[in-house]
Design brief:
About 35% of the residues lie in helices and about 15% in strands. It is globular and about 70 Å long.
């Protein structure tokens, strides 16, 4: 939710202190620029006795919308400490920058992870942004981080402060980054978050009533204008719940949006979405076709930089974001986290989703295979928000923020997560909570129990048959840093390419898209 350039040398913070200059805070050669959005705010506190400062950039809390914006305040030591403690317990997403005159600077994040900050250090200066595109050019060398890249190439994701590139970091939830201008950035991890277990319902428990009340409370915390807000209504249960609930709160004011699938799945999706949009009383609908990865008109195919962990269907998502921005949309509500909110625990599930049974990608090189032997190494402790939800939000944020749009993810709210954890298994199994909610809204069996799965399999298979083979041939012919780093085995990759070109597509072949995405990102970072 911000970009920054901070020289931690004390003299850079003594030239008059921090002050607003247009849309960013400046102090000497250092600056902090929050996202220019009504939902994002910043305040600067300074201890007049010690000179310590705190810059607090946060999503505004609608319940406290009357607070002064863009404040720069000097306080006594006691008042500074009290206000600092209050801000570090901020209930919405935030980034807090601590600057002491006689020590390193520290940057900490809240528990939400809505729009994570990426960091790198160059020539004694700390640089940060919500998009890695601003930072890769500042790396002294662009090199793949073996473990994080191996996780990407095998779809074996873990939540970590590392990125695909060595020296480029993500500030993870509740973590603190320390930098003194000399040593590398150092990360201090939080304690493991505590979670709840399923409870027994009272005989008169109104689960759906409580569900609706919690959704209302979540939306009440966010600052948004219904007339400039869109709800992603893709057809999935998570977005169906959040989208219809929001639209019914504001009849004829919320804009629906989605990427539309091809084929039979797409036909079913269109019928189901039409019913949801009618029941929810949406104002209008903005859609775009679900373009396959590496579509010729997309940023990656044209040589632009896209971080490999960003939206896998970047081309379609970018087009939709541009459409929304052109229609004046400033807030987008998603269903991200809806599956995790009602997921069965490892003890309840019949099998583990990852682990020894994880299908190994055939073309991985020896360095990647070795890294995956200890796939959990150097990862973050258990978070408040599910790690897959955190990764999904991180993937979606750069495109949204670049378009001037703030994302809202109701299922990533801690109260919503706790509600899901408390529910008995019968309410979570098969996403029954979501299904019963949609049934209670009067939606048909086609919406509640769709016969066809609606996913991107056909879109990805189109890419496997059309756009990806040429990119893989180019990679094999020209060479790749992935091959040099032994993350990819060229011989096995060539065999897989030959098999695909003969029409034999396997379930794991969608991982070719990540190979190409990582290679293209590396090349673009060097151009």
């Amino acid at each position: 939710m911000l970009k920054l350039r901070i020289d931690p040398i004390p003299a850079s913070r003594e030239a008059g202190g921090w002050a607003w200059q247009n849309s960013r805070l400046e102090c000497g050669s250092s600056w902090v620029a929050p996202l220019d959005h009504p939902a994002v705010d910043a305040v600067v506190l300074t201890d007049r006795d010690t000179g310590q400062s705190l810059i607090h950039v946060r999503e505004r809390d609608a319940r406290r919308a009357g607070e002064g914006r863009r404040a720069v305040v000097e306080l006594s030591t006691a008042a500074f400490r009290a206000r600092r403690a209050e801000l570090l317990a901020w209930p919405q997403d935030f980034v807090a920058i601590d600057l002491a005159l006689d020590g390193p600077l520290s940057i900490s994040a809240g528990e939400r992870g809505t729009a994570p900050l990426y960091l790198t250090a160059h020539d004694g200066v700390l640089h940060g942004s919500w998009t890695t595109a601003d930072l890769v050019k500042r790396l002294p060398r662009v090199e793949f981080h073996p473990a994080e890249t191996a996780r990407l190439l095998s779809l074996w994701f873990r939540y970590s402060h590392h990125t695909c590139f060595t020296g480029l970091y993500r500030l993870t939830e509740r973590a603190t980054a320390h930098y003194d201008g000399h040593e590398p950035i150092r990360f201090e991890q939080p304690d493991s978050a505590l979670h709840s277990k399923a409870r027994t319902l009272a005989d008169d428990a109104d689960v759906l009533g409580a569900y609706g009340s919690i959704l209302d409370a979540v939306f009440d915390r966010h600052l948004y204008d219904p007339d400039t807000t869109s709800a992603h209504v893709s057809g999935g249960f998570g977005s169906a719940i959040t989208g219809t609930h929001l639209a019914l709160r504001h009849p004829d004011r919320i804009t629906a949006s989605a990427m539309l699938l091809p084929g039979e799945m797409g036909e079913q999706q269109r019928i189901r979405r039409a019913e949801m949009i009618d029941a929810g009383r949406f104002r209008t609908d903005i859609t775009t076709p679900a373009l396959p990865p590496l579509h010729p008109g997309g940023r990656r195919a044209l040589g632009g930089y896209v971080y490999p962990y960003e939206e896998p269907y970047h081309e379609a998502t970018a087009h939709l974001a541009d459409q929304l921005a052109a229609h004046g949309i400033r807030t987008v509500v998603s269903g991200i986290g809806g599956d995790e909110m009602v997921a069965l625990t490892p003890e309840e599930a019949p099998h583990q989703p990852v682990g020894p049974g994880h299908a190994m990608t055939e073309w991985l090189g020896p360095v990647a295979r070795e890294a995956l032997l200890d796939v959990d190494r150097d990862t973050c402790p258990p978070a408040v928000v599910n790690e897959m939800t955190l990764l999904a939000m991180a993937s979606a944020a750069p495109l949204m923020l670049d378009a001037g749009i703030w994302p809202v993810h109701p299922f990533a709210d801690p109260d919503m997560i706790r509600f899901g954890e408390w529910l008995p298994r019968s309410w979570r199994s098969r996403k029954n909570l979501h299904r019963r909610r949609l049934t209670a809204l009067g939606l048909s069996e086609l919406v509640v129990e769709p016969p066809l799965p609606e996913n991107f399999t056909d879109v990805m298979n189109t890419a496997i048959r059309t756009t990806l083979p040429a990119q893989v041939r180019r990679l094999l012919a020209d060479g790749s840093a992935l091959i040099d780093a032994k993350l990819i085995d060229p011989d096995t990759l060539a065999q897989a390419l030959a098999r695909i070109e003969h029409g034999q597509i396997r379930a794991t072949d969608d991982r070719l898209a990540d190979v190409v995405a990582a290679d293209l990102a590396y090349r673009a970072a060097h151009n």
